[in-house]
Design goal:
This protein is of the alpha/beta class. The protein has 5 helices and 11 strands. The longest helix is centred in the last third of the chain and has 15 residues.
Length: 208
């Protein structure tokens, strides 16, 4: 069993879970449930800390992590602006970014008139920085997929596991392309280095 440090015996760790990802991970009864939950629960259980969870929209989660109202956020990937106030933990899950479109879409992904949609606060938007065309932030993944269905956008940029969860019961003929590999982890506020170390050590044990 993990020896509890003084910090681990203190107040529970305040964890934000992204609302946009509750199709694959969400708190329920003090535990994480969903497709991604087993890997995160192994890390969390092995850290020796106690955790309190709150579900927040991704942009709000990042803000609360920045101002110190949260100690940790998940599931998150690297985004340079976040490094100013938090540290990315070691990868918990391997995934990928997808570019999703509809059959018959003739707009080139790198064309000048292309339209991309993504969820506001989503780190994957950094992939778009070198592309021409219009990039459209929305509040929820469901909005992004609906815009695609209505041909109000040409492509949706989304993580593989989120897309699979959202379309698990759909027989729609989406065109799905892998854009890049993705390491999914968590961010810990700079004020909690002991927590970060404990989580990374637990993560290493989970993978051994």
């Amino acid at each position: 069993p993990t020896a509890l440090s003084d910090s681990a015996l203190a107040s529970p760790v305040r964890v934000g879970v992204g609302l946009e990802f509750t199709s694959v991970i969400a708190p329920e009864g003090g535990r994480l449930r969903g497709e991604l939950a087993d890997a995160y629960n192994c890390v969390i259980d092995g850290s020796g800390y106690q955790f309190d969870y709150v579900v927040l929209p991704l942009a709000r989660l990042i803000h609360e992590l920045r101002v110190g109202n949260l100690d940790m956020g998940l599931p998150l990937v690297h985004e340079p602006s976040r490094d100013q106030f938090a540290t990315l933990g070691d990868a918990v899950i391997d995934s990928s970014y997808l570019r999703v479109s509809l059959p018959g879409n003739e707009v080139r992904p790198d064309g000048s008139g292309v339209r991309y949609v993504y969820v506001r606060g989503f780190a994957g938007k950094t992939i778009l920085k070198d592309l021409r065309g219009l990039t459209i932030p929305v509040s929820q993944w469901e909005q992004a997929i609906e815009m695609l269905r209505r041909q109000r956008t040409d492509y949706v940029l989304i993580t593989e596991k989120t897309f699979r969860a959202m379309t698990a019961n759909s027989d729609e003929p989406f065109v799905v392309e892998t854009v890049s590999d993705l390491e999914v982890a968590f961010y810990v506020n700079h004020s909690a280095p002991d927590l970060l170390n404990a989580l990374n050590e637990a993560n290493a044990r989970c993978k051994s």
